[in-house]
Amino acid sequence: MAGSRTFTLLCGLLAATLVRATLSPPAVLSLGPEVIRERLTQELKDHDVINILRQLPLLSSIRQQPAGGIPILGNLVNSVLNYIIWLRVTSANILQLQVHPSADGQELVVQVPLDMVAGLNTPLIKSIVEIHMETEAQAIIRVETRRTGRPKLVLEDCSNNHGSLRISMLRKLSILVSPFANKIRNLLVPTLPKLVKSQLCPIMKASFEDMYADLLHLVRVPVSLSSDHLEFDLLSPIIRSNAIQLNLAAKLLDSQGNVTNWFNKSAVSLTIPTLDGAPFSLTVRQDVVNAVIVALLPPEEFMVLLDYVLPELARRLKSNIKMISEKAANQLQRTQIVKILTQKTPELLLDYGSAKVAQQIVLEVFATSEVRRPFFTLGIEANSEAQFYTKDDQLMLNLNEISSHRIHLMNSGIGLFNPGLLKDITSEILTSVLIPNENGKLRSGIPMSMIKALGFEAASWSLTKDALVITPASS
């Protein structure tokens, strides 16, 4: 009985620990205000917002305005409107959008400044009266949590910012005409905000929905990795300060489209750096980057005729073997073979600004190409410096040298010996043979189509202790 209570207590403690654990996403795409502003501006243009502003029904809206139930005031308004032949927007512009965090930092405020000129034609004046109208639409981007399905970003609470409304005459009018123009101006003061809310706000909402859909499509574009590919998908959106943060799941698929590795939220650490002025950043967790390297560098086995390819290394290898067994060294012929087998999967080791790739390698030496049994089999645990760099919108990786920090004698046909005697020569063989072979497979790079899709030409990179961070290259 006591045993069952202990088991229940341990399960409860484990469950509490898991609840408290911070689960990190496999990748995070952070979009700063610059990207949000530019993409939303483009969507507004694509929705023909300028033409919609030019079609604002100013005159009919003014005529529909109630006169406050005061007959005299209503008669006065009608008498003014009787003198208007037409009143319409003749030019319209959207000035630079502003995106900034709300007071609590949980939402984003989007401000769309509008600059319009309306033309007024009346028989009282020979020329057209031009009215300058400045106002601002304002909306909130927030995360909507649904009862069913995943949370999503929405644009809501769209309205006119009343404090931004300014209506003035472009040209000075005569003393007789000014009172009439001022009456028209006063009629536009309550009308314009209502028109912005009814005519522009639906367009803003539709533009944001299309922008959000485009971002999700961009995120899901497969990343080619030789015959495999990597795919991201949305886990959840978050608004953090002045940025939109898209937490992403990831999966690795083979050439047949079968999922070979799935990444979701886990207790694996992930440090998400601040944008620090960058328009956007893609932060990819270490285990995902490691899976990419594994896909590019699968386990392989190959042999090399060392004396033909690297005669100096063949001579030095013979000298090293002679220290172990002179008889074995004398058996080495020009057709001697070094066989290299990479085992398991490479492991990426990250630190701030630097990276290493750890590999487990089996190395065998055969006296000639005819013999079947090797002199010896060595198990080698080696590290290579991993150098990331970018080429336009491609992320590239190059391995520099290789050092054997552990070497084991797995079996030997020439007697027992200390494998450390061969540490230096095996490191040189691996540097001269294995590293060029692996770099050849890495040469195709990793396409970062997201860079150009977001409007930037080249990528930049940095490393944290647990992630690779991709940002646009500074111009």
TrEMBL record:
<dbReference type="Pfam" id="PF02886">
    <property type="entry name" value="LBP_BPI_CETP_C"/>
</dbReference>
<dbReference type="Pfam" id="PF01273">
    <property type="entry name" value="LBP_BPI_CETP"/>
</dbReference>
<dbReference type="InterPro" id="IPR021193">
    <property type="entry name" value="Bpifb1"/>
</dbReference>
<dbReference type="GO" id="GO:0034144">
    <property type="term" value="P:negative regulation of toll-like receptor 4 signaling pathway"/>
</dbReference>
<dbReference type="InterPro" id="IPR001124">
    <property type="entry name" value="Lipid-bd_serum_glycop_C"/>
</dbReference>
<feature type="domain" description="Lipid-binding serum glycoprotein N-terminal">
    <location>
        <begin position="36"/>
        <end position="257"/>
    </location>
</feature>
<keyword id="KW-0732">Signal</keyword>
<feature type="signal peptide">
    <location>
        <begin position="1"/>
        <end position="21"/>
    </location>
</feature>
<dbReference type="GO" id="GO:0070062">
    <property type="term" value="C:extracellular exosome"/>
</dbReference>
<dbReference type="InterPro" id="IPR017943">
    <property type="entry name" value="Bactericidal_perm-incr_a/b_dom"/>
</dbReference>
<protein>
    <submittedName>
        <fullName>BPI fold containing family B member 1</fullName>
    </submittedName>
</protein>
<dbReference type="InterPro" id="IPR017942">
    <property type="entry name" value="Lipid-bd_serum_glycop_N"/>
</dbReference>
<dbReference type="GO" id="GO:0002227">
    <property type="term" value="P:innate immune response in mucosa"/>
</dbReference>
<dbReference type="GO" id="GO:0008289">
    <property type="term" value="F:lipid binding"/>
</dbReference>
